[in-house]
């Protein structure tokens, strides 16, 4: 059973703070993703990683960075948190497969509030 | 790049009736279309998917249809039950590994 965990369910930070969101998966998946979920906008991809130390920008990377030092762990960093980054953040992982139809397994989400 | 539009944004049906959610995509090269269900307070989970070489796929009460020419695909839920109440997301595969999601549909089943 795939398990994707995120370091916090709820987080409250102040404007300008540096924020770290951690995601860990235990199924040896190559791919890891960070999304933000906002009402009416669906899931939007922030960053994607297909291997250790590899990263690729998604659709809304501005204001974010990521780190993948180990295969099982993918971190999302808000360099200087702003109120418009208040959102639900979802991490996901999937196998790197030639089949191209890989299920993405999601973590429980971190609801971040920036005051 | 790929763009996915999903309609309606909210849908309310009587228990036992059918529900249909529709999505359109822009990139004709997209070849994989999954549907995720997110119950209140829980994580999204895959419920059904379809590849571009298939026109329809069914799994018990849920089915997905794909029209490649028109670039749209739909989720059909028959004999709806209270546990079907959730937010549903369609998606299209862009590139090798990345999904583009629709805006989501909040489905409410009324007893």
Can you offer a commentary on this structure?
The complex is a heterodimer of chains A (115) and B (111). Chain A is mostly beta strands. Helices cover 0% and strands 56% of the residues of chain A. Chain A is built from no helices and eleven strands. In chain A, strands 2, 4, 5, 6, 9, 10 and 11 form a seven-stranded mixed sheet that branches. Chain A is globular, with a radius of gyration of 13 Å. Chain B has strands at 4-7, 10-14, 19-25, 32-38, 45-51, 56-59, 62-67, 72-77, 86-94, 98-101, 105-110. Classes of the chains: A mainly beta (115), B mainly beta (111). Chain A binds chain B through residues 4, 31, 33, 35, 40-45, 48, 50, 58-59, 90, 94, 96, 100-104, 106-109, and chain B through 1, 6, 9, 31-32, 34, 42-46, 49, 51, 89, 93, 96-104.
Features:
heterodimer; A: about 120 residues; mainly beta; four-stranded antiparallel β-sheet; B: about 110 residues; six-stranded mixed β-sheet; five-stranded antiparallel β-sheet; about 0% helix; globular
Structural class of chain A: mainly beta
Largest sheet of chain B: 6 strands, mixed
DSSP strand count of chain A: 11
Name the overall outline of chain B.
globular
Roughly how many Å is the radius of gyration of chain B?
A: 13 Å
- Give the fraction of residues assigned to helices of chain B: under 10%
Total number of helical segments of chain B? 0
Q: Low-confidence parts of chain A, pLDDT < 50 over ≥5 residues?
A: none
What is the end-to-end distance of chain A?
A: 37 Å
What is the straight-line distance between the termini of chain B? 41 Å
Overall geometry of chain A comes to globular
Largest sheet of chain A: 7 strands, mixed
pLDDT averaged over residues of chain B: 94
**Unreliable stretches of chain B:** none
Overall average residue pLDDT of chain A: 93
Order of helices and strands of chain B: EEEEEEEEEEE
């Amino acid at each position: 059973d795939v398990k994707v965990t995120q370091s916090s369910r709820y987080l409250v930070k102040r404007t300008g703070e540096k924020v770290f969101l951690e995601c860990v998966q235990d199924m040896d998946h190559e791919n890891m993703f960070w999304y933000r979920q906002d009402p009416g906008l669906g899931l939007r991809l922030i960053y994607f990683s297909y291997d250790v130390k590899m990263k690729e920008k998604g659709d809304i990377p501005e204001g974010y960075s990521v780190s993948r030092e180990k295969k099982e762990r993918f971190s999302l960093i808000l360099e200087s948190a702003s109120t418009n980054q208040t959102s639900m953040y979802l991490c996901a992982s999937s196998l790197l497969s030639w089949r191209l139809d890989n299920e993405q397994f999601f973590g429980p989400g971190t609801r971040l509030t920036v005051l | 790049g790929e763009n996915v539009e999903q309609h309606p944004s909210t849908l309310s049906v009587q228990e036992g009736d059918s529900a249909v959610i529709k999505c359109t995509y822009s990139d004709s090269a997209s070849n994989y279309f999954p549907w995720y269900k997110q119950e209140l307070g829980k994580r999204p989970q895959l419920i059904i998917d379809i590849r571009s070489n298939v026109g329809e796929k069914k799994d018990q009460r849920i089915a997905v249809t794909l029209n490649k020419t028109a670039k749209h695909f739909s989720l059909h839920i028959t004999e709806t039950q209270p546990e079907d109440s959730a937010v549903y997301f369609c998606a299209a595969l862009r590139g090798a590994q990345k999904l583009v999601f629709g805006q989501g549909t909040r489905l409410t089943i009324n007893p």
